[in-house]
Write a structure and sequence with these properties.
Blueprint lengths: L1 H22 L17 E12 L1 E9 L3 E8 L5 E10 L5 E6 L2 H6 L5 E6 L6 E2 L4 E10 L10 E13 L1
Antiparallel strand pairs: 1-4, 2-3, 3-9, 4-8, 5-7, 5-9, 6-8
Length: about 160
């Protein structure tokens, strides 16, 4: 019986090898993927919304993602506010990753003039064709008693967006 088992095993193994070889083949998949997008997030306007005892030293200006202000205030308690319109003119969702930290700016002389930003916050999203409005306000502290003849402080505020 041992003599018959070995030749049968050899024949079965040979048959299995031939069968495997006849069905085995290399599968090659080729393809092309194309991603298109248009990134265009930008400041489109700055509008003065309220000035009490204030005059602009230089009209506010802007580049793609930064706004520059140089506001003159006439007396303690004076304020000036601006709406900064930021539009996603591209077709990719955007997220506000950083806004200029005003801590250092507000601590600089004259410290009684301070800037604040409302209306937008880090991680806010901006869909294609949507507009976000940030309100930038500069205030001469009502409690300040120095320099009663007027004061000014310039600021550049950056709104940095990334893909969401």
């Amino acid at each position: 019986m041992k003599n018959k088992f070995l030749p049968i095993a050899i024949v079965l193994i040979s048959f299995a090898s031939v069968a495997y070889a006849s069905f085995a083949s290399t599968l090659t998949i080729n393809g092309t993927g194309t991603a298109t997008g248009n990134w265009d997030v930008r400041i489109i306007s700055i509008t003065a919304t309220g000035q009490v005892g204030a005059t602009d030293q230089v009209a506010p200006s802007f580049t793609t993602t930064s706004a520059t202000f140089n506001v003159g205030l006439g007396y303690p308690g004076a304020t000036s506010s601006y709406q900064v319109a930021i539009k996603n003119q591209g077709n990719i969702n955007a997220k506000l990753s950083t806004i200029t930290d005003l801590t250092t700016l507000n601590a600089a002389a004259p410290a009684y003039l301070t800037y604040s930003i409302t209306g937008v916050a880090v991680n806010d999203t901006l869909a294609p064709n949507a507009t976000a409005t940030a309100t930038v306000t500069v205030v001469w502290a009502a409690s300040a008693t120095t320099n009663p003849s007027g004061a000014s402080k310039a600021a550049t505020i950056n709104f940095n967006y990334i893909q969401n």
